Every structure is written in C-alpha cells, then in structure tokens.
Amino acid sequence: MNLNLMMNDEQELKPRITVFGVGGAGGNAVNNMIEKQLDGVEFVVANTDAQALAQSRSTSRVQMGPKVTEGLGAGAKPSIGAKAAEETIEDIVDHLMGAHMCFITAGMGGGTGTGAAPIIAQAAREMGILTVGVVTKPFQFEGTKRMRQAEEGVESLQKVVDTLIIIPNQNLFRLANEKTTFTEAFAMADDVLYQGVKGVTDLMVRPGLINLDFADVRAVMDEMGKAMMGTGEAAGDNRAQEAAERAIANPLLDEISLNGARGVLINITGGYDMTLFELDEAANVIRDKVDSDANIIVGSTLDPEMEGSLRVSVVATGIDASAAHEEVPAPRRSMAEPLTQNPPVARGQEEAAPQEDDIPVPPRRAPAAIAEPRTQEQAPAAQQQDDLPPPAWQSRAQPRAAAAVQIDDDASGFVAPKPAGGDRGQPKPEVLDRLRKAVEHQGERQAARQPQAQPETEASRNQSRMSGLGRMLERMAGHNEQGGGGQSKPAAASIAERVNERVAVRARQEEVDFDDLASPEQGDDNVEIPAFLRRQAN
Predict the structure, then answer these.
(1) pLDDT tens digits, residue range 335-350?
(2) Ligand-binding site membership of 421 (annotated)
(3) 326 appears as a binding residue in the annotation
(4) CB–CB of 19/190 below 8 Å?
(5) What mean pLDDT is predicted for residues 466-485?
(6) Are 314 and 265 within 8 A, CB to CB?
(7) I need a labelling partner for 292 at 20 to 30 A (CA). Which of 166, 186, 298, 365 fits?
(8) What angle do CA 299, 304, 310 make, to 5 degrees?
(9) Contact 303, 271 (CB under 8 A)
(10) Residue 164: beta bridge partners?
(11) How many angstroms separate the CA atoms of 321 and 260, rounded?
(12) What residue spans carry the Acidic residues bias annotation (predicted)?
C-alpha cells in the first residue's frame, strides 16, 4: 500500500518571526514579552550561565559554550562570549532555521551579550534572515570600562545587522521617579522592543484596512543602519495627532531624530470608529518629520478593543545614512595626506645625494672641494648652448662624475708608493695553507654534526605537526583559540562556512526524513529476522 503524504503549505507561507534573547538582559526581555502574551512570534534564549538559562520562560534554550564556560558565565569578557557562541553555532543555526525575520536583543557591556550577539547576528545574515538588533547600553554608574565595552559591542554588531536600535539605560531616568522600582524601570526599556515587534507582527497577521506583507517590512528595514521604534496611544478629539507625536518622541531611545530617515513604517491601529481623516492626520505628522524622498509605508489594522482610542507605531530606519556617507571620506583624506608629502621628501633625498658622494672625500684636500663648484658652473654653460632643454638628472650626475674623477686622480697619486712595500700587506703562502686547512677542518666538523641535528629538526617538525593536530581537535571540540592568544573575535569566514554547512546538513536531513515517510516499505525488505525467532515461528 502506497502512502501519499502532503505537506501543509499554509504554515510555510506564513512569515515566521523569531525573537532571540542573548545573555541576561536578553533573557529578561524575552520573559517580559512572554508575560504580555505576544502572538505570532517564536522566542529563543541563549546564555552562557546555566542557572540564568534554567529560569527562562522560553521553551527554546541554547546553552552556549559548555566547554568554554562550563555553564558558569562569561565573566564580563566579550572574548569568552564570542568563543561560546562559536562553539554552539550549530545549535544556534538549528533554532534560526525557517525564520524570515529575527530580533536579536541583548545588553551591551557585559560578556555574553557583547560577544555573542554579533556572532548570532552574523549567522542569521548568512542564512538570509532579516536581522534587527535591539540592544541596551549600561548606566553611567557602571563605569567607563563597561561603557567602552558596550561601544565596541555596538560597533561590531552594527556591521552584521540590517537595522540596529539602541536604548541607553541612562534614559530611564527621564521616565522614572523616586517611587519607580528597578523592575518597573527595566520593563519600560523592554516595552520598546515589545511595541516594535508587536507593530510589525500586527501589520502582517491582523486583518485591517491596509494590509502589509513581509516584503514591505524588508524593503524598509533591509540594510538601513540605525533605527528607532516608537508607539503612541491617545484618546479624545485630537487623538490622531497626539498619538503620532508620542510615537516619534520616544525619550528612551538614543539621541536620534527622524530627520533624514530613508525608510518609515507606520502602523495605525484603531477601532471601527477610526476615520479616514484621522489616518491622514497621523501619517502627515510623521511625513513632515522625515526626508522628502523617504520610503514611507503606511498600514492600518482594526482592533475592536480599541474603541475610542488610537495607537500609532513607527519604525524609522536609515537615520544615520546621510551622516555616514559624509563621514566616510573624511578619514580617507586624512590618510592620504602623508602620501602627498612623499614627492617633496623624495626630491630632498635626491638633492642630498651629491652630499653623500662628498663624504668619502678627505677634508684635507682643498682641490677636490674647490673643483666641485667649478664643474657645476661649467655644466650649465655648456647646456645653454643647446636648443633642447636638458633632463633634470643630467645636471646632478655631472658633479658626481667630476668628483669621482678627482678622487681617483688623488687616490692614484696617494697609493703610488704602496707597490714598493706591497709584500707587507699580503699574507705568506704558509699562512694561506693554514687558513685553507682550518676551513676544511671546520667543514668536516659541521658535516659530522648534521646527522645529530637532523633528528632534532624532525622531532621539532613532528611536535609542530602534533600541536597543529591538537589545535584542529580543539577547534572541532569548539574551543577555536587562535594562536593561543585568546582573540575576542573569531574569523568571519569560518563562521560563514560553519553556518552554510549546518544549513546544508539540516536540508539533507529533512529530505531524508521526508523520503523515509513517503516510502516506508523500502526498509522492510532489508530487515533480517534472528534465527531463534524463525525457529519459534516454525
């Protein structure tokens, strides 16, 4: 009997969004989003601390670096976090398989989030996933070292994500008061991520007046650099304008504005009482703040529970695009400045060359010093008679030749008396024979030592080979220590290769599993029945 299995295409055609929490801050953000029961999103938590990972509410967990950290954390060292992420890159790829969009949330300044978030983002980019980073920066009271690590982590993460949203924790003091608890303050920061993800998912999942698909979201957020997310909600007569102004004036985000934004995604959510005039008013408030040539995509969803109120969600991307293009040529010009100074330096060296020729001339010989200026005066006189302009090097070569002739003449007159007593400077034949014998004897000693030194070289080569084999085994085990120096950032090519290999392996496994399900009778013919079972059957 043949079995015809049909795959359910409805789930595959639906956009899949994954929120990947990295480190302690990322895990807490995921827990807060799970509490708010956000639909249409899959949550994954990755951490080097096994104890913190066990307290996560997410069912999908990744224990990073079990051999590097042994589940004890990264110790606020980004290099350890990067090694841990590279060790478990296969598990990370397995959780990212099939995703269309990935939000990577982490706290910059520590060890796991700062070091592992760029590795995970790079793996997602290699798989063709739209990657959005939402990170926090430490408080000022945490010190300059942690802030410096956070800046380095943000810089490295921005290179491997499509869009990056930065939330400084110091901005929490703008909303917090004396009675605000520590947990409530961090919940405010996590709410930025929650509202941004909710605004994107509502556009694609919830039915509305103006529906948007995932391609529209990718067009706005693909390779756009820094971005901002904001949500505003208001009620009353002027609810559209108030909600739009609150959305673009988020006090928690970094010091950025909508001026010059290249892509804007607007989601206006309201009840069935929302009018066309209100939608137009809210969209125009945001349109006036961004660039005139910006790619603006407006969507509207309906929520029966929001009768009498209006919510506006804004995702603005490419905010630093114009500033980045203006700042790129600046270091190039400063780097090119020393190159413009090279020709004068070369000419100065060429002009100083005749002085180097004058150094061997003995200072006692006045004729050599006097004759040199005369040749320089005679050379232009002879050249002025020609109609053609002389080459630049010819005037400099003539003084050198004249000085050399004068030195040779003076040297010949000075060395003339040497032949009379030349035997004093030449070695005797007996001395030459002794030197030859000594050289031959030294050669024999070296030849005798070579067989003994050769095993040492071979042993050293074998030792180097074994050390290379050991390093290869360590890389296979997941340590990947480069040169024993503990480099903080692994090679980008190695991560890309491992990601591609893992994706290919998973694709082959899925094909094999499907073939086995489609034709289960193929494996029945190859099953061997033990002898004692055949006897019992008889």
Answers:
(1) 344 434 444 444 444 4
(2) no
(3) no
(4) no
(5) 47
(6) yes
(7) 166
(8) 55
(9) yes
(10) 133, 226
(11) 8
(12) 512-527
Q: Within 10 A of 214 (CB to CB), how many other CB atoms are there?
A: 17
Helix pair 23-35, 182-205: axis angle to 10 deg: 60
Query: Position of tokens 């296979």?
Result: 476
pTM recorded for the entire structure: 0.61
**299 neighbors 266 (Cβ within 8 angstroms):** yes
> DSSP for 394-459?
HHHHHHHHHHHHHHHHHHHHHHTTGGGGGGGTSPPHHHHHHHHHHHHHHHHHHHHHHHHHHHHHHH
Q: Is there a binding annotation on residue 26? A: yes
25 is in an annotated binding site: yes
Q: How do 263-270 and 295-302 pair as beta strands?
A: parallel
Q: Is residue 12 classed as helix, strand or coil in its secondary structure?
A: helix
DSSP class per residue in 152-167: HHHHHHHTT-SEEEEE
Tell which residue, 80, 73, 43, 39, has the closest CA to residue 60.
43
- 113 assigned ligand-binding residue: yes
Burial label for 312, CB within 10 Å (0-12, 13-18, 19+), is buried
Q: Is 109 annotated as belonging to a binding site?
A: no
pLDDT at 485 over 50: no
Summary mean pLDDT of the chain:
73
User: CA–CA separation, 500 vs 257, rounded Å?
Assistant: 38
Q: Closest by alpha carbon to 103, among 71, 141, 74, 133?
A: 133
107 Cβ partners below 8 Å, 6+ apart? 23, 24, 25, 26, 113, 135, 136, 138
- Compute the distance between CA of residue 13 and CA of residue 16 in angstroms, rounded to an integer: 9
3-state secondary structure of 502: helix
Between 44 and 10, residue with greater pLDDT: 44
Q: Is 146 annotated as a binding residue?
A: yes
Q: Which amino acid is at 321?
A: A
39 is in an annotated binding site: no
Question: Do 316 and 258 form a contact (C-beta atoms < 8 A)?
Answer: yes
Annotation-wise, does 28 bind a ligand? yes
Domains of the chain, with CATH numbers? 15-205 (3.40.50.1440), 227-333 (3.30.1330.20)
CA distance 291 to 451: 78
* Residue 86 near residue 499 (C-beta atoms within 8 A): no
pLDDT tens per residue across span 25-39: 999 999 988 988 887
By DSSP bridging, strand 263-270 and strand 163-168 are unpaired
SS (H, E, C) 79-125: HHHHHHHHHCHHHHHHHHCCCCEEEEEEECCCCHHHHHHHHHHHHHH
Half-sphere exposure at residue 501, Cβ-oriented, CA atoms within 13 angstroms: 9
Radius of gyration over every alpha carbon of the chain, rounded to an integer in angstroms: 38
Q: Please tell me whether 112 is known to bind a ligand.
A: yes
CB 380 within 8 A of CB 338: no
